[in-house]
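Long-time lurker. I teach an intro course on protein structure, and each term I like to show students one example going from raw sequence to a predicted 3D structure in token notation. This year I'd like something fresh instead of my usual example. Would anyone be willing to generate the tokens for the chain below so I can use it in lecture? Attribution to the forum is fine with me.
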Amino acid sequence: MQAWQVHENGEPSEVMRLAEVERPTPGDGQVLLRVRAANVNFPDALLCRGQYQVRPPLPFTPGVEICGETEAGRRVIANPALPYGGFAEYVLADARALLPAPESLDDAEAAALHIGYQTGWFGLHRRAHLEAGETLLVHAAAGGVGSAAVQLGKAAGATVIGVVGGADKAAVARELGCDVVVDRRAEDVVTAVKEATGGRGADVIYDPVGGGAYAQSAKLVAFEGRIVVVGFASGTIPSPALNHALVKNYSILGLHWGLYNTKNPKLVQHCHEQLTELAARGAIKPLISERVPMSEAAAAVQRVADGRSTGRIAVVMEEAA
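-- Reply from a regular --
Happy to contribute to a lecture. Here you go:
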């Protein structure tokens, strides 16, 4: 089978190589899946760079979420078992963790419903307990993780403020349903959000960026607000001033969604059921900005690594297409 492999760490466009390799053999509790579509995530870039919390042995294939097909022809969503990642024709996955692909979504959309939307649901509902009528601020609102949080926030009845970088991404955020869009390249984020909220700030802030975005969050979080720390796409991990959290009465909530797969897998299944229902009635729909063939996977991962993408890029296999 064909698979993209990483033999040394570095930038995705430089270290990902398309090769002919042996089809993997399932171990105990595993199942072989034919890949229909593989979604590109920022962790794929981190895997290539050797900067992700999981470091599979070299060589490995990146690609952390797919829509695949079982040998019986069932369409499923799965997280491939590294080192056999999703940018390949076949993957291995934990048989117990397979989730049914929603009928309302095509292969690329189904692949994109998993990590980003699960992270958004757990962050907004399980950790921050977002309520209807509250104000939600989403950093990187036009990106893959941010766009999911925007849709979930709107579905929950929140007023959503999206922070983006550039006019093109601002247009995407408006199409996603943001009530207020702030272009950090053209506006002062803190001033703009305070004006939009009458000086109160946001009840919940969803931050997959870190760095300067977190510093803005600390200035903008409302009384008894919640900052959900999802990731550090900026490359800078902030050091929160805990005295500031005490003085303003706000919470800093960490979220590593992957832990729920082992700590509380039933909750992951419950979340998927909620997401499937939301997708069926059109309340959420993954934003797929590009569908690329297998041959363009490395370039797609590099675009996500460089922050040059909106929504999700999906690698769609020719047979599935």
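Some talking points for your students: The chain has a mean pLDDT of 96. Residues 150 and 205 are 11 Å apart (CA to CA).
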